[in-house]
Amino acid sequence: MSDFRTLPASGPFRLENVTVPACLLGQSGGLVAHALSIDEGRLSDRIDGPQIDMGGALVLPCFIDTHTHLDKGHIFPRSPNPDGSFEGALHTVGADRQAWWSAEDVRTRMDFALRCAYAHGTRAIRTHIDSIAPQDTISWPVFAQLRAEWAGRIELQGASLTGVDRADMSGEYARTADIVAEHDGILGLVTYPVPDLRDQLRGFFRLAIERGLEVDFHADESGDPNATTLNMIAQTVLDMGFDKPVTVGHCCSLATQSERDALETLDLVAKAGLNIVSLPMCNMYLQDRSAARTPRWRGITLVHEMRARGINVSFASDNTRDPFYAYGDLDMLEVLRETTRIAHLDHADPGWIEAFLANPARACGFSLPSLAFGAPADLIILRARDWTEALSRPQSDRIVLRAGRAIDRCLPDYSELDHLMQKS
């Protein structure tokens, strides 16, 4: 396979003998042989210029990461999860936010995370932003500044985040919704069983309707089979005729419910047209964790059953080096590798790669990844000729092209954040 130093620094060129997923060419089947011409930063039908034999290298469009938490990222060194549990993460992040989250702290950590994602080959990200007052007035302006600075490299979307039991729909969260609208964001909510959930959801959707906002939920992130808020979200969408995109992340409890109840909910989700995001790495870290006890389930939702119903399913990074997930680097290739194993995507529909590319683009409204003539030449080239080669190694020597030119993939050093980790 060619090294990026042999790729031309200017002018058109053609990558001969590459391997790509058939679904990205509008074909059925798995991986197919192909060739890609690049000219003026885009894929072209020209065949002039140097022709480079890539030795069957697997080529993908740059990834889309549709569920992240850039504002929480990289706080684990100063605020580790005491026991690895969801409750431990919730309380630890809350304390860290109250003590540390100035505009400069949030900005520095978010920018560090974006540099990691860019080096790994991600071109678009939706991040959830903790929006409990007064943090909403701090973090949203920081997000807006970074979105402008990163334009052309990573397209950014922001979604507000607060728990359903802390959201006053007629008071404080209405003010937050105004901030979200001011910054062209997405209105978000974390749902779990509470006595007035139906009324809260209706109030939440009214806030979104009044401001013309899309919505994004965290739902049922637990192993409690009685956590059935996904069902109520879908029913509320249908009852209210909400016509903006609705995305729901996690939905872990579906895997612990009876087959009948879970599948009835999925039928309703399909009818309501919801987008679902599964976060396998984070949910394996948190779910079914008890001291001195081996976990009995994986924490992943029913992705195969969703796909069979035509539900738009995506996979994403979620948290990065924070109390909700102590690891990760916003590397969507790692997410693809681990999800393939965790969710048994292998020996299944070869089109699952769309859950890391086209599906998140559809959910968020990002431009669709494409290998068609005229598409941006934003590509990831792997030193691998098939999926088993690609997913058996970290692919740390991958080549990332943006506008047809190889980028510098040097990752930022963690020592850059040391000044933020000094506990007082």
TrEMBL record:
Residues 199-397 form the Amidohydrolase domain. One of its GO terms (biological process) is cytosine catabolic process. One of its GO terms (molecular function) is cytosine deaminase activity. SUPFAM superfamilies: Metallo-dependent hydrolases. PANTHER family: CYTOSINE DEAMINASE (PTHR32027:SF0). This is Cytosine deaminase. It comes from Roseinatronobacter bogoriensis subsp. barguzinensis.
